[in-house]
Amino acid sequence: MTPPAVAVKDLTLAYRDTPVLWDIDITIPQGVLLAIVGPNGAGKTTLIKAILGLLKPAAGKVEILGKPYQQQIKKVGYVPQRGTVDWDFPTDALDVVLMGRYGHLGWFKRPGKKDYALALDALDRVGMADFASRQISQLSGGQQQRIFLARALVQDAQIYFMDEPFVGVDAATEKAIVTLLKELRKQGKTVIVVHHDLQTLKEYFDWALLLNVHQIAIGPVEEVITSDNLRKAYGGRSAFFVS
Amino acid sequence: MDYTIFMVMIGSSLVGCVSGALGSFAVLRKQSLLGDAISHAALPGIALAFLITMAKSPMIFMAGAMIAGWIGTMLVMAIVRHTVIKEDAALGMILSVFFGFGLVLLTLIQRLPTANKSGLTHYLFGSAATLLLEDVKAMCLMGVVTLAGLFLFWKEFKLFTFDKDYATALGFPVKRIELILTLLTVTAIVMGLQTVGVILMSAMIIAPAAAARQWTDRLWLMVVLSAVFGAVSGLSGALLSGFVAQLPTGPTIVLIMSAIVLISLLFAPNRGMIWEWFQRRQETKLLRQKLMEKHKS
């Protein structure tokens, strides 16, 4: 039996005494495109960060492909929110993409020919081949997002976590990301995306996790996005999306 | 060449070079103030080292400075992690408490009957002219270790500075990387205390890097330029203060460094203020022309 891509058991996380995630229990099978949706402050980013070991949960356990994250690091790719880094950092697009190879290189070693080839290929896949030597502060928001995607691609992972990749990007980038997601699924990869647009949910994803501190529902999109569930997550505000 | 001048030249350019290189990372991490806290925190370490050993040995002073600077840094980190106090306030607190303590100890030492007390006040404003072969040897060793560390951990430092969370997700032990980077920064600062002094040493960390950033968009070039700017101002400042005019070394070096910063801020292509002003004027002109043409047609 193949292990699930991600298994989260009884995960609870709090900032001081305010719970951000409460008793999360989810199993994500391999090969799905899953969107994590929920209102602002629902703990979507926090859940990803807790799975990746960036935040320490108060309780609970996380397994990636049947083992703790620390043993599976090389099988996981990560696309953080674009706003978390200083884009005035003195470097170019290719160099940022190469950072995705650092985990494979280990201490002291510098990226070699193969890493450069992989990075250029990844830039091509996100439609940024012409921007390899562009200073990163001179890229548009959408282009920066695609650089981050390319950086995760060169990690050559089985499971990808993407935090709000569609936020503040142009139509061309949105299209490029969707194409990439479909491509990844075709290769049998699992992709978990923090998403906020309920309208594109059915079109882009096949699974969804509806979250608002508590988990409301997880499963195929049609089963999760019911007016009942949405009312539970959003408090009636978004019920009109499902007609 | 005069032996003293030779020592001063080597010592002061080395200080500028190493602090400039390490300073690039401090500036990019937006931790410029940390250098200020470390250098001020080193003063009581120097004074205590003297009080304990009663020897006027730069090696022992540097060890004392290193330990005190390190304790200061760790305290800042602990305050930020465990209390509601923010980093700027924590840095200010540690800086003033340690520096105040250092000044008290220095005053006490001045009152001691022993004749062997001179030299300690040099650590306030720096005095390159007092550098001896022994000092320069110790500084060379520290400089080589620091630059080797920077070279060895280059990839890790870059990744950590640009995107800490991503480094963590890739499995790098970011706490250890931060510790090593901080340790190298402390070493670079302690190395320069005798030449530049505790009060202005932080400028050697911040100023060359700020100037270098203006001229390039590549990290390695920024670090190299920063090291060169630091070395040039260290060298010329020390020579000027020690042999041309009788001035304190630290302030002289810092004034020269400030001139480099000013030129960089004004004239650097792409990022310089004059360049930007000129660009904007050209753009406005073009826009106006286009509008005129549109009105005519």
Summarize the structure.
Chain A has 243 residues and is an alpha/beta fold. In chain A, 31% of the residues lie in helices and 24% in strands.
Describe this structure in words.
The complex is a heterodimer of chains A (about 240) and B (about 300). Chain A has about 240 residues and is an alpha/beta fold. In chain A, about 30% of the residues lie in helices and about 25% in strands. Chain A has helices at about 45-50, 95-100, 100-105, 115-125, 140-155, 170-185, 200-205, 220-225, 225-235, and strands at about 5-15, 20-30, 35, 60-65, 75-80, 160-165, 190-195, 205-210, 215-220. Chain A has a 6-stranded mixed beta sheet with strand order 5-6-7-3-8-9, with helices on both faces. In chain A, β8 (about 205-210) and β9 (about 215-220) form a beta hairpin. Chain A is globular, with a radius of gyration of 18 Å. Chain B has a single domain, classed as ABC transporter involved in vitamin B12 uptake, BtuC (Orthogonal Bundle). The longest helix of chain B has 26 residues, at about 5-30. The mean pLDDT of chain B is about 90. Chains A and B meet through α3 of A and α7, α8 and α11 of B.
* Order of secondary-structure elements of chain A: EEEHEEHHHHEHEHEEHH
Residue-averaged pLDDT of chain A: 91
| Main pleated sheet of chain A | 6 strands, mixed
- What kind of assembly state do the chains in view correspond to? heterodimer
Mean pLDDT of chain B: 91
Q: Please report the total strand number of chain B as a whole number.
A: 0
Q: Largest interface here, residues on each chain?
A: A-B, 32 and 27 residues
The number of domains of chain B is 1
Low-confidence stretches of chain A: none
The CATH superfamily of chain B is identified as: ABC transporter involved in vitamin B12 uptake, BtuC
Strand content range of chain B: under 5%
Query: What is the CATH topology of chain B?
Result: ABC transporter involved in vitamin B12 uptake, BtuC
